[in-house]
What does this fold into?
Amino acid sequence: MNLLTLSWKYLRFRPLATGLNAILLAFGLAIITVLLLVQHQFEQKMTRDAAGIDLVVGAKGSPLQLILSSVYHIDFPTGNIKMEEAKRISRSRLVKQVIPLAMGDNAQGLRILGTNHDYLDLYGVKFAAGKAWEQPFEVTLGAESAKTLGLKLGDTFSGSHGISVGSHDHDQHSFRVTGILAPTGKVVDRLVLTSIESVWYTHDEESKTEPSTPIEGEEASAEIEEAPEQGIDPHLLPVAARGFPLTDQEREVTTLLVRYRNPMAAIQLPRMINSGTSMQAASPAFEMSRLFELLGVGISLLKGLALALVVIAGLSIFIALYNSLKERKYDLAVLRTLGASRLQLMILVFLEGISLTTLGAFLGISLGHGFLALVVLLTSQELVSLVDPWVLLPGELLIFGYALAVGIVASLIPAWSAYQTSIAKQLTKT
It folds into this structure.
């Protein structure tokens, strides 16, 4: 006889109980699946995006906000810093490389980031089409940015003031696409990259055509008050491919990405900047470690809730199997008379528990991926958009292991009871 087919027919004979037990188990496993996907992808993506960046220097404020805005581009900048101060940092014997960044505009919610070609080298990008910017108001699009904006080489578009959607457009100058990057799986995919000069000239034109008004909080990071030389077309001015832009005016940048020259810099440089300048220095590794530690408390609580649901599901499966076994004592005795051994009866009950928990595992993992995909689809927050809901992780195999363990443990007592089934006792009952 085929024990697997027989066990499945027993489960189908009680569809309500089978379905409820499978769904209860699936809920617990779905929560574990979501937490596994979110935790793994956040840590992996954030570690990968911060690779090669030892220190971030910016305006005074929250160190975590500085890291999130400058490395991951998912928060508002803390403000601007004077370029002369930034240049002094780059001349330090403790510094190997400095990459300046200028922020303050967006294109349909995507960050327009002013920087130099060192930023492209930092992430090891390759071009799917075109080349990097060489003149003001030329841009290079990340792979996701090009898809979202629906732009191709040679197309033009206007940026909007501020970091988020809904602010006024900069109509004085249009950006022209000169390059599109190949997908990297890193933060650069979601950016619109251009020169720092482009960001300066955009706000220079705005300051000449609009009356000055007080700027609050996050919008302050984009305001540059100086005007360019009169009578010079910004499109004809050169841009700096490496290092800081050349200018004889008082200019500002938003942040600096710093690489250390030697291990001693990790001790001396942050203290020197934080205590001896008007800027602040923050370590991506330290701040992310602190963030993961804080998030770990909430994740542990949710995992505890999920494991409690799995345990409850295991108890429910045990009760269902045990009650079902009491109703089927006569059937098991008949199977014994037809040639089934005690061991086969015990295996039959084990197969019922394992089949039920395997069904719950498939349902739970599918439910977890589907729920996460729905959250990503309906949520506009950039932090949530970092998660790919359809990635299959090796750790999900452990979920099947948990499910099988629950099925085996829940089946132990009913299986032993089936093993001890007495033919004579059951057949003589009226």
Summary: Residues 209-231 have pLDDT under 50 and may be disordered. DSSP finds 14 helices and 13 strands in the chain. The CA atoms of residues 82 and 376 lie 38 Å apart. The longest strand covers residues 95-107.
